[in-house]
Specification:
Blueprint lengths: L1 H24 L14 E2 L6 E5 L2 E2 L7 E9 L8 E5 L27 E4 L7 H4 L1 E9 L6 E6 L6 E5 L4 E2 L6 E7 L6 E7 L6 E9 L5 E8 L21 E7 L7 E10 L4 E10 L12 E4 L20 H10 L6 E4 L11 H14 L4 E3 L7
Parallel strand pairs: 1-9, 3-10, 18-19, 19-20
Antiparallel strand pairs: 2-4, 4-7, 5-6, 5-8, 8-9, 11-12, 12-15, 13-14, 13-16, 14-15, 16-17
The protein binds 2-acetamido-2-deoxy-beta-D-glucopyranose (4 copies) and fe (ii) ion.
EC number: 3.1.3.2
Keywords: Hydrolase, Secreted, Signal, Zinc
InterPro entries: Calcineurin-like_PHP, Fn3_PAP, Metallo-depent_PP-like, PAPs_N, Purple_acid_Pase-like_N
C-alpha cells in the first residue's frame, strides 16, 4: 500500500520534469514562427537593403564569411525584421502549391535565418536605419537579405538587397568522419554542389607527411518530392546538394593521417578543400585510454545571434565550443539522436554540419536518429 502510494506520487513528478524539459528545449522551430504563407508585398520607395561583400570565400577553401547588411526605411516599426533567403530569387509566381486547393504562397521559401532589424541598432525604430553582421556559410546557392515589416505573423516585404554569393558555391564543405565497420576503417562524408555528371568526388589521403593516395567517393542526394509533407516539401525545402562518402581502409594503428576532399571536373580541373587530419584508432585490445563523449538533443545555434527567437537551443553553441576546446582529449563522439531539430527546414542541416565541422572533421562523429530525425 505504502509502496503503491509512493509510486503514484513519484511517477507524476517525473512526468512533469520531462515535460518541462521537452517544452524548454524542443519547442517549435524558430523558422516555423514566421507565417511565410501570409507574406505580402509592401515594396517601399526609398527603402533599401545593401549587403557586402557581394562575393564571399575568395580565400581558397573558405566556406564561411561575415556579411554586413545595411538597411533603411522611411516607415520603421519595432517588429521589423531581416530575413536571409537562399537562393536569392525567392519571389515567384511559380511556387509549387502543396495541394491544388491551396493557393501557392507569394514567397516560396522560408528564410534560412532571420533577425530583428533593431538587433544591433536600438535606434532603428526612430531613425529607420540599421545594420547587422551575419555569418553566412556556403549553402551552394546565392543569398539575398530582405526587410519585412508586420512582424513574423503578418510579414510584408519592404525591400530586398543585392545578391551575395560564394565564389565557388559548389565547393566541397563540412567533412565529417565516422568509424567504419572495422577498427582500421574510417569513412569521410561531405557536402558539395557537384553531381556525378559534373565531377568525380574522391579523398586524397595518407600518413601525415607521407605519400597520399586517392580513394573514390559515392554520391547521394534527394528531391523535394521525396519529402513527406510541409514544411520540408514546401517553404522549408532547400536543395541539399550532393552528399559524398569515401571509405579509407587499412589504417595503421594510432597513425596520424592528413586528408583533403577533391572533385575532378571532366575538363581535368581539380577542386580542393583545405587539409584536415585525424588519428587512426588503436589496434583492438591495445593497452590505451580511449576518451568517449556521448550526448544527445544538441540542436544548433548561430554565432551571430540570428534565429534565436524564443531561445530555441541556447546551449548548443556552448556544447560545440567546449568540445572544440577539448578536442585533443577526445577520441570519438557519439551524438545519440535529436541532432539538429531541423523539423523540416532543410537549410538547418548545412548550418549544423558547419557548426560541428571542427569536431567531426578530426574525430569520428557517430550519430543515431532520434524522434526529430524521422
Ligand atoms: C527590438 O525589437 C523587439 C521585437 O519587436 C522588441 O521586443 C524590442 O523591444 C526592440 N528593442 C528596441 C530597443 O527597440
Ligand atoms: C526570379 O524567379 C522568377 C520565377 O522563377 C523569374 O520569373 C524571374 O525572372 C527571376 N528573377 C531573377 C532576377 O532571376
Ligand atoms: C573547367 O571547367 C570549370 C567549370 O566549368 C571552369 O571553371 C574551368 O576554367 C575549366 N578549366 C579548363 C582548363 O578549361
Ligand atoms: C553559453 O555561452 C554564452 C555565450 O558565450 C554565455 O553567455 C553563457 O554564459 C554560456 N552558458 C553556459 C551555461 O556556459
Ligand atoms: Fe530531444
Amino acid at each position: 500500500m505504502m509502496r503503491g502510494l509512493r509510486l503514484m506520487i513519484f511517477i507524476p513528478s517525473l512526468l512533469i520534469l520531462t515535460n518541462l524539459q521537452e517544452t524548454s528545449s524542443h519547442g517549435d522551430h524558430p523558422l516555423s514562427r514566421i507565417a511565410i504563407h501570409e507574406a505580402t508585398l509592401a515594396l517601399t520607395p526609398l527603402a533599401y537593403v545593401e549587403a557586402s561583400p557581394s562575393i564571399l570565400g575568395l580565400t581558397t577553401g573558405q566556406n564561411s564569411e561575415w556579411v554586413t547588411v545595411e538597411y533603411s526605411t522611411p516607415i520603421p516599426s519595432v517588429d521589423d525584421w531581416i530575413g536571409v533567403f537562399s537562393p536569392a530569387n525567392f519571389s515567384a509566381s511559380t511556387c509549387p502549391s502543396e495541394n491544388p486547393r491551396v493557393y501557392p504562397p507569394l514567397l516560396c521559401s522560408a528564410p534560412i535565418k532571420f533577425q530583428y532589424a533593431n538587433y544591433s541598432s536600438p535606434q532603428y525604430k526612430d531613425t529607420g536605419k540599421g545594420s547587422l553582421k551575419l555569418q553566412m556559410i556556403n549553402q551552394r546557392s546565392d543569398f539575398s537579405f530582405a526587410l519585412f515589416t508586420g512582424g513574423f505573423l503578418n510579414p510584408k516585404l519592404v525591400a530586398v538587397s543585392n545578391k551575395v554569393a560564394f565564389s565557388n558555391p559548389n565547393a566541397p564543405a563540412y567533412p565529417r568522419l565516422a568509424q567504419g565497420k572495422k577498427w582500421d576503417e574510417m569513412t569521410v562524408t561531405w557536402t558539395s554542389g557537384y553531381g556525378i555528371s559534373e565531377a568525380e568526388p574522391f579523398v586524397e589521403w595518407g600518413p601525415k607527411g607521407g605519400v597520399p593516395i586517392h580513394s573514390p567517393a559515392g554520391t547521394l542526394t534527394f528531391e523535394r518530392s521525396s519529402m513527406c509533407g510541409a514544411p520540408a516539401r514546401t517553404v522549408g525545402w532547400h536543395d541539399p546538394g550532393y552528399i559524398h562518402t569515401s571509405f579509407l581502409k587499412e589504417l595503421w594503428p594510432n597513425a596520424v593521417y592528413a586528408y583533403k576532399l577533391g572533385h575532378r571536373l571532366f575538363n581535368c580541373t581539380y577542386i580542393w578543400s583545405t587539409e584536415y587530419q585525424f588519428k587512426a584508432p588503436p589496434y583492438p585490445g591495445q593497452d590505451s585510454v580511449q576518451r568517449v563523449v556521448i550526448f544527445g538533443d544538441m540542436g544548433k545555434g548561430e554565432v551571430d545571434g540570428s534565429s534565436e527567437y524564443n531561445d530555441f537551443q541556447p546551449g548548443s553553441l556552448n556544447t560545440t565550443k567546449q568540445l572544440v576546446q577539448d578536442l585533443k582529449n577526445i577520441d570519438i563522439v557519439f551524438h545519440i539522436g535529436d541532432i539538429c531539430y531541423a523539423n523540416g527546414y532543410l537549410s538547418q542541416w548545412d548550418q549544423f554540419t558547419a557548426q560541428i565541422e571542427p569536431i567531426a572533421s578530426s574525430v569520428p562523429y557517430m550519430i543515431a536518429s532520434g524522434n526529430h530525425e524521422p
